[in-house]
TrEMBL record:
Residues 1-10 have a biased composition (Acidic residues). Residues 41-314 form the Protein kinase domain. This is Protein kinase domain-containing protein. PANTHER family: OS01G0253100 PROTEIN, SERINE_THREONINE-PROTEIN KINASE CDG1-LIKE. It comes from the Eukaryota. InterPro entries: Kinase-like_dom_sf, Prot_kinase_dom. GO terms for molecular function: ATP binding. The lineage of its organism: Eukaryota, Viridiplantae, Streptophyta, Embryophyta, Tracheophyta. Keywords: ATP-binding, Nucleotide-binding. Residues 1-30 are annotated as: Disordered. It comes from Ilex paraguariensis.
Length: 318
């Protein structure tokens, strides 16, 4: 769901989300109302999505179908999985335990013999031309998505959530113009369903210390956030940039300029208002922490977010 706008190469390369026009103050998503999330019947879903006709089909990819619908006069999204798709159960387990203002939250689910359904609020999506976004707006987006990631990595009671597929196309907006991360792809708990015996020192260590593979997956999500920050700075889509740049990634192109402090070489030149340009440096420094993270230099999401906010003590430390 992208802005159709102009067909020029410049516009096609820009996929940074933009906040929508705020709706009425009385509008509330279903996930925030009493009684949700909950189990739905197939009849309820068929009524909400007009029998799952083609006119309600938004997207079909990776063996999943995404439909739009209306329930209790409120827009919803319904994701349809086949009956043997394990991704459904993994996502249901994660989303049932997640509640955060910067994450697209679960509304409900439905299980039949042949099909599995996950429902979420219909965000007021906003993939729009980045030229419409001033620097302070991009900074707010960076902080809100960072807050959601910090919650997923550090504040969830059952441990970190990983495989988040962080990029500009996964960022949407609520009707109150809040930036949110959409997790309806492959998010998982870091430790999966492995049992943990807290009376056993060996089991306790296994359940509290990530394996090498788990550590790499945690790092991948942090790098994904760093790439997203570069998308905010440049106004370019990482995916489209690589397709048009003979295989060079957006990160490979931008990282040397960020390291040298040459922000003027990568900043979106279409933004003429420079009154808030100082926040670009905050975003760039946070991106560097994410992208230069390795086994010798480990940074938490809280540390990255402090740098993105412009915390003087955090910036001086790193």
């Amino acid at each position: 769901m992208q802005d159709e706008g102009s067909d020029t190469d410049e516009d096609k390369s820009v996929l940074i989300p933009a906040p929508p026009t705020p709706q009425s103050s009385c509008w509330r998503p279903l996930s925030s109302r009493h009684g949700f999330p909950r189990a739905f019947s197939l009849i309820e879903l068929e009524m909400a999505a007009n029998g799952f006709g083609t006119e309600n089909l938004i997207l079909e990819e990776d063996g999943m179908k995404l439909y739009e619908g209306i329930y209790q006069e409120t827009p919803i999204l319904i994701r349809l999985f086949s009956g043997d798709d394990d991704r459904f159960w993994s996502l249901l387990k994660v989303l049932s335990c997640v509640r955060h203002r910067n994450i697209v939250n679960l509304v409900g689910y439905c299980c039949t013999a042949d099909s599995l359904f996950l429902l979420c609020d219909y965000p007021c999506n906003g993939n729009e031309l980045a030229k419409n976004l001033l620097w302070k707006t991009r900074w707010y987006i960076a902080l809100e998505i960072g807050a959601g990631l910090r919650y997923l990595r550090e504040d969830c009671a059952d441990g970190p959530i990983i495989d988040l597929s962080i990029c500009s196309s996964a960022v949407v907006f609520s009707h109150s113009s809040t930036a949110m991360l959409s997790m309806f792809k492959r998010a998982k708990w870091l430790k999966g369903d492995l049992p943990c015996n807290e009376d056993s020192p060996a089991d306790l260590e296994r359940c509290t210390c990530p394996t090498i593979e788990e550590d790499e997956r945690l790092l991948a999500d942090l790098c994904g956030y760093g790439m997203f920050l570069i998308e905010l700075i440049t106004g370019k889509s990482a995916q489209t940039f690589q397709e048009q740049g003979e295989g060079q990634s957006l990160v490979d192109w931008a990282l040397p300029f960020l390291e040298n402090g040459s922000l003027d070489q990568v900043m979106d030149p279409r933004i003429e208002d420079t009154s808030d340009i100082r926040v670009v440096d905050h975003i760039a420094q946070a991106a560097l922490l994410c992208l230069k993270n390795d086994s010798c230099h480990r940074f938490s999401m809280s540390e990255v977010l402090a740098v993105a906010r412009g915390d003087k003590f955090a910036i001086a430390k790193y």
